[in-house]
């Protein structure tokens, strides 16, 4: 499986944060966006700790 390009990855991270803002669980967001609950939790945590700067490319 190929890695997503940076713009595609950034868009996914933003969709994760927006879905989390609706109050959905990590599991529900992951299922909705085709990700994993672990990845959703990681991006949720980064956003809570660092706000928009936390979405910068790791």
What features would you describe in this structure?
The chain is mainly alpha-helical and 58 residues long. The chain has 3 helices and no strands.
Tag the structure with descriptive keywords:
58 residues, globular, single chain
Total helix count? Answer: 3
Indicate the proportion of strand residues.
under 5%
Oligomer: single chain
The count of β-strands is 0
Largest sheet: none
Uncertain segments: none
Offer a quick outline of the entry.
By secondary structure, the chain is an all-alpha fold. It is built from three helices and no strands.
What is the topological layout?
Elements: H1 6-21, H2 26-33, H3 37-50
Helix pairs in contact: 1-2, 1-3, 2-3
């Amino acid at each position: 499986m190929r890695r997503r390009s940076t713009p595609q990855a950034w868009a996914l991270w933003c969709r994760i944060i927006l879905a989390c803002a609706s109050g959905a669980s990590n599991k529900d967001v992951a299922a909705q966006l085709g990700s994993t609950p672990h990845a959703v939790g990681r991006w949720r945590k980064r956003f809570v700790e660092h706000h928009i700067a936390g979405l910068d490319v790791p």
